[in-house]
Amino acid sequence: MTSRRRDCCAYFSALALAWAAPGLAGAAPAAQSKTAPLVLVVGDSLSAEYGLARGQGWVALLEQRLKEKKLPLQVLNASISGDTTAGGRARFGALLQQHKPSVVIIELGGNDALRGLPLASSHENLLAMTRAAKAAGARVLLLGMQVPPNYGASYGREFAGIFERIAKEEKVALTPFLLKGVADRPDAMDWFQPDRIHPLAKAHPVMLDLVWPSLQPLL
């Protein structure tokens, strides 16, 4: 096995621990306007500011960017570290009913693959969430994930294809790989915290810049 292959496998193995770690993401703003449209983010540890100071994660940076651009939008981060598509689906209806978002960002699926859950179930859950959000009048952005190469090329294509297929069939926006430009760098391990599991704060602006072109037209 080459050094680069070992580093890649080590990264994704470590990332599996990150996605499995318990913890709740940033809470809703203390005083939300009842008139400003809401952007709801439902994800796992990649969106939950795991191991970061409050305000350093890409979702918090999104909120800052919206304020800088004077866009009258609120952001609610309902991400939970370790969450799966089934977990997200179970709480999704209540989130939609309570917060009535205008835009929904779904960042789930990585834990499903890392735990070996059936891809058909992941597809069904993400599809149900996408359709529920659309039925509630929200615009949807899917944030895709990829699995490490040791899962096999066929499995990797099938997993990535879940997000692509839903985005195409349901006509919703897609960012194919949230960690593009971070996890696939030659010096990828230098972009993670000392535990070699969680992205450093410097990685999160890269993640936001990757999401922004797909999100901006929905705002």
Descriptive notes:
Residues 1-27 form the signal peptide. Keywords: Signal. Residues 41-204 form the SGNH hydrolase-type esterase domain. It comes from Roseateles oligotrophus. With 219 residues, the chain is an alpha/beta fold. The chain has a single domain (3-24, 36-218), classed as Rossmann fold (3-Layer(aba) Sandwich). The protein is 44% helix and 11% strand. It is built from seven helices and five strands. The protein has helices at 3-20, 58-68, 85-99, 110-114, 119-135, 153-170, 203-215; strands at residues 38-43, 74-77, 103-107, 139-143, 173-175. The chain has a five-stranded parallel β-sheet, sandwiched between helices. Helix 3 (85-99) packs parallel to helix 5 (119-135) and helix 5 packs parallel to helix 6. The radius of gyration is 16 Å and the shape is globular. The chain starts with a helix and ends with a helix. The model is unreliable at 1-33 (pLDDT under 50).
